[in-house]
From TrEMBL:
Record field: compositional bias (Acidic residues): 1297-1311
Domain FANCI solenoid: 66-283, 377-540, 805-1028, 1042-1292
GO biological process, one term: DNA repair
A GO molecular function held by the record: DNA polymerase binding
Official protein name in the record: FA complementation group I
UniProt-annotated stretches for the region Disordered: 1295-1321
């Protein structure tokens, strides 16, 4: 055999072509095969031998062509057998590739079929010979014609058949990567490529996880040919499924059978990380791929999953895509939250059971997954967190002021998005060490630089970071000290938040504490008032939190730090003596503030009480400071009146007068501190008889008590003249004397209030002492009446009643004593207060004022004002009392108060209750049931019922009260009280579950009231109908309700055609002549909400149709019925059209109501146009008949609504006096200024917009008619109504009259018409 091989090679190397051919002809096929096999196995001169065979086998002869084919047919399996050395196989394939183009068409076809068959049976395991296949297919595609079966095919067609056959067959999972690599070199049409990509993506599930990244890499290289979107979608959906499986395993880990081999989580995450790197690398090189990637997400936000979010965040590192990615994620987050809000607020949408994708959950899952070494995702994560917080953080209020008390639950989509940004950053901070420094730096930078807008969200995040990782923060203490340097320039709210947040760190870091104290001392002498206020805030916080050993344990003493890392014994690091010296030093710094502006002093007085409660060892210093300050303004001579010096309390600057000393607050602070110490003293002396510090304490206590007793006694003797504040005094704010008197009056009233509180507590329900309290009140009341009277006279009644200085706790105690204290021993004393009607009213109004402050800002003035738990306890007590007072004393008893045009006590109680329920929902959303059950617990100590029952118990009580109001005559009807009751019912009904029987009872009751109440009170009816709508949307779609209300409004206001008699409808008695316009506006706002939902559904269906054209077509054809969402849209729009058809025939008053109706009509046609466009899209993808319901809808719009719209436009522009024969209506429409209403119509452009909307609708209907081959325009009657139209009927009438009466006696109607024509735009 060696000799034969040598001969063949030598003949080939020489130029003996003929001899070579003859020699080869003499060899049998088997012999040639044996030669090739032998040569290849030995690896010697295989190339030379193959070249020789090709040289001696001319392709133009049939023998030569067959021999060449034989070589290919033998060598390919030989290379695949795995017996050859890699280099030998590579050389052979290389040679074969060079000669492929010489093969004839049939040979190529045969060879290609050989490859396909080998692949099908799995004989292409090593993939070495696959490199040849692309060359064969390329050569095959170039062939003109090939015989195929009985006919002929072009080479291109034949290649297509082969690829189809190949992609339809079963592939060996081990070869998928080889095949994908091979196809990169095959010229493919787009259709073939799609077929191939589908096949490879389907194979993902069958591959081992470790093989996915190399396959993805090959696919991404293949994407250069096209199908970029399909490849990316395939990769993302594969990992989306894996994540879902992983999540299910985590949820039901124990229950799952072990038959299915689960993928370890860390392995999956590492593979995902590698794939993300591959994709990002590919996008860097191929910008078209990047564009396709982002375009895919823009069309369907619903496809977000943790993997795709991670991919987006990694792509954001490429600069050209950064902005697009974050805008896209921001839009996805907001859309997700808005969708959730829309779904929660509509039973109609909930019934459709639409799947909901939560972008927030996906993003947080990505953050969690990133712990598996996804460093390429973390940077994007940080940027996204700050991007959301910057974009959706709280906005500055009017005049750049931060809106106060923005705390509470994140309710709106922007607030939720901002909160999500904070969660991303906090989780990222906890998990990834490399990004901690950057997050901290960026948060602190924003706290320092964003002085114009609120930074409460950043303060919250910073506080969470401190609590979660205090020790990590101490490593970055230099950044914190740098931030401290800016304290004096920051807004006060920021300083307070920042210092509260760093408290836990100050306890464990000496250097940080020293740095802060240094900064605060400098700030004490700042030229800016805010800087000095910041210093006071900081020092007070330090005093509260650095306890001197031996201080009494108070419920507020210890600041909760939920981290085990700061379990440091404060006293081991800073011993008691050091803490005491430190606190006394701070107190001496704070004493200097007592010579500064009123604002600074005020902060100090408000802070001392809290310091004392937490650090009772400082009592002596604090009380001595307050005593010496009080003595400056106290008149020691016992016979002199008044007992306080008011002149030193003010200061002049030029001709302006300012308050220098908030005297009432100073007295208030002193009183509260003194009372607390006395309570503590009583408690401790009962326990032990320790007398060490008693002498000193007794000294300042007795001094202060003497001062307060004397002040009370002399204040009772003092007349208003003694303060120069009698009725003849000037209180105008325009003059300096008036300003001074105003300041004096507020100070004196404040002192009266504080003394009332002190004396009430000291009185211990003693009658004579309580008479002193009422005497103090009568003086307070006299002064406040003078102030109200004087400010009422001046044009600018700027000063409302000043904030009461009674503490919230005392206000609560006071009303409890007045209304609920049944103790026999106190009866006599309390009767003094109860008999004083003005005092009782004052006590209730203070309670309402305190609750209002809590609702608006989250805290109240005075002691314990910042303490949320105590505030809630006071709320519970107040609710109990107010509820008892309202339900047990009927308002009939208070008829006297009605004549004085003041709200009754019952109304005050109701206002208080409404504010309590609102405050509780906003500030303590989880404690609403607790609030109601404490009320009930006081009523009867029976068994605790469930939340809904407790809630419904109170709802029934308020329902009874409202029913009583409505049962009387209209003269006795108290509108304000009824409105408050409706508002309370609205708040309480929010606590009911829409699925509960109580909710259904609530709706039934509300419908009944609306049907039976006929009072002509627009404000009350507005509240009642709003309640009805808010409940109804959570129960079922309000479409039917809207129709009934529209019929009622139509029958009440009459028809636009005066000759038309409207059928009397009376579904809801609450709609009458006076309330119909209000009802119409409410109905239109509800129509707007229904249209919002319909628009949302259509947009959602459009997205689905676009994302899976073929899938949806198959699904709908298979089902042979309309999609539930489409059906719902059609039915809702049908109901809206029917309701608007009633309203558009109604003689509405010109002005807002007419314009709102025109706008809603325009909006309805826009929505109809959107639906028509959707069906155009559907018909493009899937030719077929339109749903019958949709045709009915089009018919309804064309026959019922459009003609009526044009009539209404004519009516709205004419300004004619409409409304049937009813004189009252005529008079009403006459009163409305026609010129003004016509001008309003011109300015709003409502009519042109409506006409444009109708025409757009008809334009797209024509397009849809062509697409669907259904004549939809048969239902439409094209109108000639335009702004510049000629009213033919009016013209004929005018001409007729001119002929009949040539003389110049024109009737009123004739003279009116031309004027109106001038008015028309």
């Amino acid at each position: 055999m060696k000799g034969e091989m040598d001969k063949l090679v030598s003949l080939a190397e020489g130029d003996h072509i003929t001899e070579l051919q003859n020699y080869l002809s003499a060899l049998t096929d088997e012999k040639i095969k044996a030669l090739m096999t032998n040569s290849a196995l030995k690896g010697k001169r295989v190339g030379a031998m193959l070249k020789g065979i090709f040289k001696g086998s001319p392709s133009n002869s049939s023998e030569g062509a067959n021999r060449r084919l034989l070589v290919y047919e033998h060598c390919i399996p030989l290379c695949e057998s795995g017996d050859l050395q890699a280099e030998v196989a590579a050389d052979m394939i290389g040679l074969l590739m060079l000669e492929t183009h010489t093969l004839s068409g049939p040979s190529l076809a045969k060879l290609a079929s050989l490859f396909v068959d080998a692949i099908k049976v799995g004989k292409m395991g090593s993939g070495k010979s696959l490199e040849l296949f692309p060359t064969v297919l390329t050569a095959l595609a170039a062939c003109e014609a090939l015989t195929y079966g009985k006919g002929e095919l072009s080479g291109e067609e034949y290649k297509k058949q082969l690829i189809n056959s190949l992609c339809s067959s079963r592939w060996d999972p081990q070869c998928v990567i080889h095949f994908t690599t091979m196809f990169r070199d095959v010229p493919l049409s787009l259709e073939e490529l799609q077929f191939l990509v589908e096949k490879v993506v389907r194979m993902f599930a069958k591959l081992d996880l470790q093989e996915i990244p190399p396959l993805v890499y090959q696919l991404l290289l293949l994407s250069a040919k096209g199908c970029k979107r399909q490849i990316l979608d395939g990769i993302i959906s594969y990992f989306k499924e894996q994540d879902i499986h992983q999540e299910e395993e985590e949820k039901h880990g124990e229950n799952l059978d072990l038959e299915v081999q689960s993928i370890p989580q860390d392995q999956l995450r590492h593979v995902e990380g590698t794939v993300i790197l591959h994709v990002v690398f590919a996008i860097r090189l191929d910008h078209e791929l990047g564009r396709e990637f982002l375009k895919g997400f823009k069309t369907s936000y619903g496809d977000l999953c943790p993997f795709s979010v991670a991919l987006l965040l990694s792509v954001a590192r490429i600069q050209r895509y950064e902005e697009q990615v974050f805008d896209l994620l921001k839009a996805a987050v907001v859309k997700s939250f808005k969708d959730k809000q829309l779904l929660q607020g509509s039973k109609f949408l909930q019934d459709l059971q639409l799947g909901q994708c939560s972008a927030a959950k996906m993003i947080l899952d990505t953050v969690r997954n990133s712990v598996f070494g996804w460093d390429h995702v973390t940077q994007g994560m940080v940027q996204l967190g700050f991007f959301l917080m910057d974009a959706f953080g709280p906005k500055p209020g009017p005049f750049g002021k931060a809106s106060e008390g923005s705390g509470g639950v994140a309710r709106t989509p922007p607030q939720q998005a901002c909160k999500l940004g904070g969660q991303v950053l906090l989780q990222g901070f906890k998990m990834h060490e490399p990004i901690r420094g950057e997050i901290l730096e960026q948060v602190l930078n924003r706290l320092v630089t964003k002085t114009a807008s609120p930074v409460s969200h950043y303060l919250e995040l910073f506080s969470d970071i401190v609590i979660s990782a205090p020790m990590i923060l101490l490593e970055s203490s230099s950044k914190l000290t740098e931030t401290f340097d800016h304290l004096s320039h920051l807004p006060l709210a920021t300083v307070q938040g920042l210092l509260k947040a760093v408290q836990p760190l100050l306890k464990v870091s000496m250097s940080l504490k020293d740095a802060l104290i240094l900064v605060l001392r400098k700030a004490m002498f700042s030229s800016q008032l805010d800087g000095r206020k910041s210093a006071v805030t900081g020092f007070l916080l330090l005093l509260k939190n650095f306890k001197v050993l031996g201080s009494l344990a108070s419920s507020q003493c210890s600041q909760a730090i939920s981290s085990s890392q700061v379990q440091v014994d404060v006293h081991s690091r800073f011993n008691s003596a050091a803490n005491e010296a430190f606190c006394l030093e701070i107190l001496s710094s704070l004493r200097r503030c007592l010579g500064q502006q009123a604002d600074v002093r005020l902060m100090l007085y408000e802070g001392f009480y809290d310091v004392l409660r937490r650090n009772s060892q400082l009592a002596s210093s604090i009380m001595q400071t307050l005593l010496s300050q009080l003595r400056r303004y106290y008149e020691p001579e016992q016979d002199l009146l008044p007992p306080v010096k008011l002149e030193p309390c003010i200061t002049t600057h030029g001709d302006q007068i300012f308050l220098q000393e908030p005297l009432a607050h100073l007295v208030s602070c002193t009183v509260h501190c003194l009372l607390w110490l006395q309570n503590m003293h009583t408690a401790t002396t009962d326990d032990s008889g320790d007398d060490d510090d008693d002498e000193e304490e007794e000294g300042y206590r007795s001094d202060l008590q003497a001062i307060l007793e004397s002040t009370t006694r002399r204040m009772l003797k003092s007349e208003l003249e003694d303060f120069e504040l009698d009725k003849s005094a000037e209180f105008s704010l325009a003059s300096s004397v008036g300003v001074k008197n105003n300041i004096y009056a507020v100070l004196v009233m404040g002192v009266y209030e504080v003394l009332m509180e002190y004396n009430f507590i000291k009185a211990n329900y003693n009658k004579s002492h309580l008479e002193g309290v009422t005497e103090l009140f009568s003086r307070y009341h006299r002064l406040s009446e003078i102030l109200r009277e004087k400010s009422g006279k001046s044009r600018t009644s700027s000063n409302k009643t000043p904030r009461s200085l009674l503490s919230m706790g005392f206000a609560s105690t006071l009303i409890t004593a007045i209304f609920r204290d049944n103790a026999q021993s106190r009866e006599e004393g309390l009767s003094v207060l109860r008999s004083n009607g003005e005092f009782v009213r004052y006590a209730l109004s203070v309670v309402v004022q305190k609750i209002q402050q809590l609702e608006e800002t989250g805290h109240t003035d005075g002691p314990d004002g910042q303490n949320a738990d105590r505030a809630f306890r006071f709320l519970c007590d107040m609710t109990r009392v107010l509820m008892w007072r309202y339900t047990n004393i009927p308002s009939v008893v208070e008829e006297a108060g009605r004549k004085e045009r003041r709200c009754s006590l019952s109304q005050l109680c109701l206002e208080g209750l409404l504010r309590i329920f609102n405050a509780c929902q906003q500030r303590f959303p989880d404690k609403m049931t607790q609030l109601l059950s404490t009320m009930e617990a006081a009523e009867d100590d029976g068994e605790q019922e469930d939340a809904s029952e407790v809630n419904y118990f109170y709802i029934r009580q308020f329902q009874r009260a409202l029913f009583t109001q409505l049962s009387g005559s209209e003269e006795d009807f108290n509108s304000r009280e009824a409105q408050l009751l409706v508002s309370i019912l609205a708040v309480l009904s929010r606590q009911l579950q829409p699925t509960s029987k109580q909710f259904v009872q609530m709706i039934t009751w509300t419908v009944k009231i609306c049907k039976e109440t006929s009072f002509e009170d627009p404000t009350f009816s507005k509240g009642l109908l709003s309640l009805l709508f808010s409940l109804h949307v959570l129960y079922k779609s309000p479409a039917g309700l809207l129709l009934e209300l529209c019929q009622d409004i139509h029958s009440q206001l009459g028809d636009i055609d005066q000759d038309m008699e409207v059928e009397r409808q009376a579904h809801f008695a609450v709609v009458n002549m006076k309330t119909a316009t209000t009802a119409a506006l409410l109905v239109l706002s509800q129509v707007d909400k229904v249209l919002d939902e319909v628009d949302w559904l259509i947009a959602r269906r459009k997205g689905h149709t676009a994302s899976d054209k073929s899938g949806s077509a198959e699904a709908s054809q298979a089902a042979g019925q309309q999609d539930p969402a489409e059906k719902a849209v059609t039915l809702q729009l049908g109901s809206v059209l029917t309701a608007l058809n009633e309203l558009v025939q109604t003689a509405l008053l010109p002005g807002t109501c007419t314009i709102t109706l025109l706008r809603e009509l325009s909006r309805t046609y826009t929505t109809l146009t959107t639906l028509v466009k959707y069906y155009i899209q559907v018909c493009s993808n899937q030719p077929g008949a339109l749903p019958a319901r949709f045709e009915k809808l089009v018919k309804l719009s064309g026959s019922h609504l459009t003609p009526q719209c044009y009539s209404f436009i004519t009516y709205a522009q004419s300004g004619e006096i409409g409304g049937g024969s009813n004189e009252k209506k005529k008079k009403k429409r006459n009163e409305a200024n026609p010129a003004a209403s016509a001008k309003l119509l011109r300015e709003t452009k409502a009519i042109p917009n409506l006409i444009f909307s109708i025409e757009q609708y008809e334009k797209y209907l024509i397009m849809l008619s062509k697409k669907s081959k259904v004549n939809l325009m048969q239902y439409m009657k094209l109108s000639t109504s335009r702004d510049f139209r000629i009213n033919a009927a009016t013209l004929d009438a005018a001409l007729q009259e001119q002929e009949d009466a040539p003389e110049a006696e024109a009737s009123q109607e004739e003279t009116q018409e031309p004027k109106q024509k001038k008015r028309k735009p």
